Fold this sequence. Notes:
Helix content is 41%, strand content 4%.
Amino acid sequence: MSYQPRPIDTAGVELGPELSRLVELLARNNHELWALRRMREGWRWGPRRDDARKETPLLVPYDELPESEKAYDRDNAAETLKVILALGGRIVPPKELPG
């Protein structure tokens, strides 16, 4: 296999504190979208991941996820915002965020 991932370089991009709540909101939403897709595919909660039975212990509300899973969602959300900024975009956080 010769595939070499080449993500957009965001090493020099920092997200200010005003975006931290937005990162959390996006991470939470990412989990909700993932869970909705899984459920539509026939997955359900189970004590351990079992692809054959379509069970996963991660089909729980975001607040009940292990911290490692929340961190994964936060990292993806933060990286998406950093890519937008690295490409010259602007992010104006809403004055009020739900939750």
